[in-house]
Design goal:
Layout lengths: L1 H44 L3 E6 L5 E6 L39 E2 L2 E2 L11 E5 L3 H6 L22 H6 L2 E13 L1 E7 L12 E9 L7 E9 L1 H4 L5 E7 L8 E2 L7 E2 L10 E2 L8 E10 L6 E5 L3 E6 L11 E11 L26 E9 L5 E2 L5 E4 L6 E7 L3 E7 L9
The structure holds 2-acetamido-2-deoxy-beta-D-glucopyranose (3 copies).
InterPro entries: Glutamic_endopeptidase, Neprosin, Neprosin_propep
Keywords: Signal
Pfam families: Neprosin (PF03080), Neprosin_AP (PF14365)
């Protein structure tokens, strides 16, 4: 009996040990598998560079030959001939960046320029590092929006609006066919309370309904510790053709956008930044549809045509946009708890005005005859004006404009 008892307990012990070893092996296999997956993803994203530039902010900018860029991983772009210039460029009401005396704002470029430039026929790409991918919840989710959330001022369901914790302060137009949009936006470095939150200022070119098949092209500046690993303000783009589900990504983190410009890198830090009561720095962004080829082009500032999203990426936007939005968005990551102190824009309310508040000026749309013009019937929208607010106006120099933003948590926004 005693022997039998010993052998049973030995058996159990053996089983126990075997289980421990097995789970350790599994864990090791799991991390090995993850490491391999991350490695493979990095190899897919980071194309061989002709030259690499170390930026003062820690980024590495790879100058990649224009025909080796990520876009050409897309099966539909295998035989694509790059369009090196748009066949059409809409003319603006405000060709020169015009600000009144005493309200001087200055042009902005990118931080990595301090250490070099990319040669002709290459495009600058912010190199994705292992840590960038490891910060994402999975390799698949890296570079993509986490929530199906978009500012929907037309929604009649307030619960739906507040659900995702995303908060907006925007101006918008809808009810017509739009072929592009433009704005000049001053650049700030809003404080982010926790790394899974972000703060951005952008324009949205939207097509379709706010359902599962929403098409969106987005561009502006953002601070996103999760995406970039720091609190720097960066130029970004985003696109989706199915309401942020399976298609699209930030910047060049998936195949889609075709870049032609060798001077501006998507996702790279913008420099300098506006100061409260100090000099104001702004960027201009123009996105428009080429009426000949149907591609959506993007221009940064007055001089940099960055590239285009081919029309076939989209359904509704293959024809035109049905809504344009301009403004700010932040994530309030615990919508049921205290309000986040993540700032939008300058972190100050619109009332404070020039030099203190964040603004969009000279907002314009591209109409059906491919002209830039001041939008008619501009609406404004914010979920909680005590946290982040928006105030629009109109004058000679700034055309249609608005101030927006706020501090988030404050006595009126607990
Ligand atoms: C690209 O060209 C090759 C050779 O002409 C052809 O077999 C292939 O189907 C083309 N691919 C696309 C996506 O058009
Ligand atoms: C969102 O939630 C806040 C806090 O519960 C509430 O004050 C606000 O009215 C809501 N906004 C909308 C548009 O329902
Ligand atoms: C970003 O800012 C937050 C506070 O606003 C700070 O706690 C954090 O350390 C900063 N992160 C980096 C990488 O500088």
């Amino acid at each position: 009996m005693a022997t039998a008892h010993v052998s049973v307990s030995h058996g159990l012990l053996g089983l126990f040990l075997a289980l421990i070893l097995l789970s350790r092996a599994e864990a090791r296999l799991g991390t090995t598998r993850q490491r391999l997956e991350v490695h493979r993803h990095l190899r897919r994203l980071n194309k061989p560079a002709v030259k690499s530039i170390q930026s003062p902010d820690g980024d590495i900018i790879d100058c990649v030959h224009v025909s080796h860029q990520p876009a050409f991983d897309h099966p539909f772009l295998q035989n694509h001939t790059i369009q090196m210039r748009p066949s059409f460029h809409p003319e603006g009401l405000y060709a020169e960046s015009k600000v009144s005396a005493g309200e001087k704002s200055r042009p902005v470029l990118q931080m990595w320029h301090q250490n070099g430039r990319c040669p002709e026929n290459t495009i600058p790409i912010r190199r994705t590092q292992k840590d960038d991918v490891l910060r994402a919840s999975s390799v698949k989710k890296y570079g993509r929006k986490k929530h199906k959330s978009f500012p929907n001022p037309l929604s009649v369901d307030p619960d739906l609006l507040n659900e995702s914790g995303h908060q907006h302060a925007i101006a918008y137009v809808e009810g017509d066919k739009y072929y592009g949009a433009k704005a000049t936006i001053n650049v700030w470095e809003p404080k982010i309370q926790q790394p899974n939150e972000f703060s951005l200022s952008q324009l949205w070119i939207l097509g379709g309904s706010f359902g599962e098949d929403l098409n969106s092209i987005e561009a502006g500046w953002q601070v996103s510790p999760d995406l970039y690993g720091d609190n720097n303000t960066r130029l970004f783009t985003y696109w989706t053709s199915d309401a942020y589900q399976a298609t699209g990504c930030y910047n060049l983190l998936c195949s889609g956008f075709i870049q032609i410009n060798s001077e501006i890198a998507m996702g790279a830090s913008i420099y300098p930044i506006s100061g409260y009561g100090g000099p104001q720095y702004d960027i201009s962004i123009l996105v428009w549809k080429d009426p000949k080829e149907g591609n959506w082009w993007m221009q940064f500032g007055n001089d940099y045509v960055l590239g285009y999203w081919p029309s076939f990426l989209f359904s509704y936007l293959a024809d035109s946009a049905s809504m344009i939005e301009w403004g700010g968005e932040v994530v309030n990551s615990e919508p049921d708890g205290e309000h986040t102190s993540t700032q939008m824009g300058s972190g100050h309310f619109p009332e404070e005005g020039f030099g203190k508040s964040s603004y969009f000026r000279n907002i314009q749309i591209v109409d059906a005859s491919n002209n830039l013009r001041s939008p008619k019937g501009v609406g404004t929208f914010t979920e909680q004006s005590n946290c982040y607010d928006v105030q629009n106006g109109n004058n000679g120099d700034w055309g249609s404009y608005f101030y927006y933003g706020g501090p988030g948590q404050n006595p009126n926004c607990p």
